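Form 7-S
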Amino acid sequence: MESSVSQKETHQQAPGWKRFFAHVGPGFLVSLAYLDLGNFETDLQAGANHRYELLWVILIGLIFALIIQSLSANLGVTTGKHLAKLCKAEYPTFIKYCLWLVAELAVIAADIPEVIGSAFALNILFHIPVWTGVLLTGLSTLILLGLQKYGMRKLELLISILVFLMAACYFGELVYVKPRATEVMKGLFIPRLQGDSATGDAISLLGALVMSHNLFLHSALVLSRKTPPSAKGINDACRYFLLESGLALFVALLINITVVSVSGTVCATTDLSAEDSDRCSDLTLNSASFLLKNVLGKSSSILYGISLLASGQSSRITGTYAGQYIMQGFLEIKIRIWLRDLITRCIAICPSLIVAIIGGTTGSGRLIIIASMILSFELPFALIPLLKFSSSSVKMGPHKNSIYIIVVSWVLGLGVIGINIYYLSTSFITWIIHSSFPKPVTVLIGVIVFPAMAFYVISLIYLMFRKDRTVTFDEKLEVSVEQGGHEVRD
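Output:
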């Protein structure tokens, strides 16, 4: 009891800036996922194909990310449980297992860009074939987990420095190429979708930015901080986590804007060599090092490859943690981290290896875009439970979302869902109309896909309108603390 009292008194007496730094960590770790190889790939292609026209997608995506990541943190702080555990407690068995399966597939889809990007890095640095690099990245999981024994914080810091070194190179290149500020501002604040591939590229950008496994991860990471279960303690923690997330995601926004602007500016110049012009027409992570040659010269490919490898491995940290919390939360079984991560990494390697062997570098680059689109379609199955739980009085008590946050978050969330459904339906109908397959095959595919699309929509409607039943907010505990108790939630 005395230790609890001292913890509470220390928490109350410490200056605000010390309490803020005590909460720093989860938001910056989660923000690494907004700087992963999937983001770089989609940023590069968006800039090369559309210059600055899709910057508004990044702005809206990261504003949306700030809102939902703060809601995820608030959910964990207030309930003392992370999103996966709350889903397990709330939904029937069948729904629970379906949500778990979708969450695991999201982790695997997020892992594909890291596998391929790391293989690209090995190809740049050591001229190893991409398919061989895909196999070698499977070993990186064991190496990464082995290095964690020597201090996870130090490892995260080292990898983050390398990732931000890559970002610094792009900032330097941005200063050199000097994109027109007016065009960049128009791209940020004037929504446009011009061109046949604009909608698909926009969805890929959004899918690469806002990933469902981040919602599970953030709600779990905040539980590592001790929060007094009083109104003031919870409100302070939520505010500090919001500030931290805002700072981390602002940095991520600047980096993503810089990558798109550099790609859009360099590929739009008229004095490109024939080789660089061909690269811009099909820009991938494997061919993007030439964008930095104005700043780094001949060493651009080496430093780019090192940073690419660091970015892929840093993203594996978030994927590893997210997968761990998802499995433990939904299934309540403990599995060795290295075994669970090795299984999911092997599953991610299979499609990456097949595409790398058959399609080479170009096919692998396209697979990253496809993985980002899959993530966008899977997002609602984590987003809807988060929005409902964080707005529910039985989950959050008096700390539930205000009416303004509810309206804004649901409008943005439904916008993402609506874009996904629209793109899915129109793309498939267009494919059906112009299909080159024999009619019986086309009809068979339609018979399979249309019910699947209907099931997708019905599943989302079920999640949206199902009433929350499980109570997780302990009002008696908060009242006892406000009246002089000394409990501190671990």
